[in-house]
Amino acid sequence: MANTDHKIPELLAPAGSLEKLKIALSYGADAVYLGGQKYGLRAAADNFTNDELTEGVEFAHKRDKQVYVVLNSFFFDSDFENLLEFVSFLESIKVDALIVSDLGVVDIIANNSHIPIHLSTQASCLNAESGKFWKDYGVKRLILGREVSIKEASRIKKATGLEVELFIHGSMCMSYSGNCTISNFTQGRDSNRGGCSHSCRFDYELVDSKVNKSAFFMSSKDLNGLSLLDEFVQSEIDSIKVEGRMKGPLYAASISKTYKEALTYYSQEKKLDNEKLRYFEQELNKFTHRSYFSGSLESPAGLESVFDERDHKKNQTKVFGTVIDVIEDKFFIIDSLTKVLPGSIIEILKFNEGIITHQLNSLRDLNDLELSSTRPNQLIKVPYISGVAKNNIVRVLG
Ligand code: SF4
Fold it and tell me: Which of 7, 130, 189, 244 suits 166 as a labelling partner, its CA being 20 to 30 A distant?
């Protein structure tokens, strides 16, 4: 039971595939958002087939967790052709909400199903009047634009009586979400229909009579709102959202685990003290990212939000593999994904609190043959360590 006067927000994680859905939920996310084969904004993600959607929802509901499906692409008339059929299917498998931006799509869903509607950040809802309008059309939750601060989100929640969801972590757009056509005009790929090529991340040249400079003028740093967790809770934000459907399984595990542990700690202690905050910040630095900033969560993002650097903050860890079996008191087996040498230090991400750090003094295959290194897709036998569980993600330092 939470030892706090305020409700602890839902942790909403990205699920770019069925594998990542299972990882995110197993590592503590309360809900995931994902796309089907059409209508989402990540054409390059392994979007879910109907069978995968069914399996994903069953997996989530067995654990009392939620699945939200994105239908937030910009719609043309032709896109409506099979929409009702898809919505009926989603209702039949009991998805928990649909994330929508187009008013026509909102109207169709509200009049033909009972699935709760969450207004996508693509609709750029930044104020309470807009929120009230969407409420009249059947919207239950506002996923506010990333330009809205936590305080403004709290005011919008009170004024509309709607749930509010805010991004807390992940990549950012330098434009208002849903209002960018750089990718369309530079690469012929429509940002608002799943094709964003991240043209804003490119190196551009600025040339005029005084300046000749090459820089990443339009690339944004990555959002990290962990240090503002207290404000999210006190402001009664209903859901904190992590970006990253295109990122890998290690990200899905690490991000869900870190934010869940931070929320649990906060619910018990009513604060994140500096030592704990430093620990969680270190965890968020263990995978590749751009420099972090807090976006517009406190005050409008400005010049300091530009990521004018060539190199990303390098990952301090990479994924080693997944624990595929545990033979109690004897050994466990890792399905290795990468080359690792004897002496490497691995970190096993437990589903519950904590990380097991272990040095691989020797490497052995399933026949107990000693190896000079591992190779991708090789099964490795490691002496049993208490606390290791099947499907734990294992990362390697360095
Ligand atoms: S090109 Fe950049 S700013 Fe535009 S939608 Fe894509 S990520 Fe956002």
Answer: 189
- The verdict on 281 and 383 lying in the same domain is no
User: Are 329 and 385 in a shared domain?
Assistant: yes
Which pLDDT tens digits describe the chain residue by residue (398 residues)? Answer: 444 578 999 999 999 999 999 999 999 999 999 999 888 666 656 789 999 999 999 999 999 999 999 999 889 999 999 999 999 999 999 999 999 999 999 999 999 999 999 999 999 999 999 999 999 999 999 999 999 999 999 999 999 999 999 999 999 988 887 688 888 888 888 887 777 888 888 888 888 888 888 888 888 999 999 999 999 999 999 999 999 998 999 999 999 999 999 999 999 999 999 999 999 999 999 988 899 999 999 988 888 888 877 666 666 789 999 999 999 899 999 999 999 999 999 999 999 889 999 999 999 999 999 999 999 999 999 999 999 999 999 999 87
In a domain, 168, yes or no: yes
Distance CA 283, CA 183 (A): 32
Of all protein residues, the one whose alpha carbon is nearest to atom 8 of ligand 1 is 173
- Calculate how far, in angstroms, residue 198's C-alpha sits from the geometric centre of ligand 1: 5
Residue 240 and residue 124 share a domain: yes
Query: Does the C-beta of 246 come closer than 6 Å to ligand 1?
Result: no
Considering the domain architecture, whether residues 282 and 329 belong to the same structural domain is answered as: no
Give the domain CATH number at 270. Answer: 3.20.20.70
**197 burial class (0-12, 13-18, 19+ CB within 10 angstroms)?**
middle
d(CA 176, CA 288): 24
Look up the pTM and report it.
0.93
Kindly state whether residue 3 falls inside one of the protein's structural domains. no
Q: Is 173 in the pocket of ligand 1 (CB under 6 A)?
A: yes
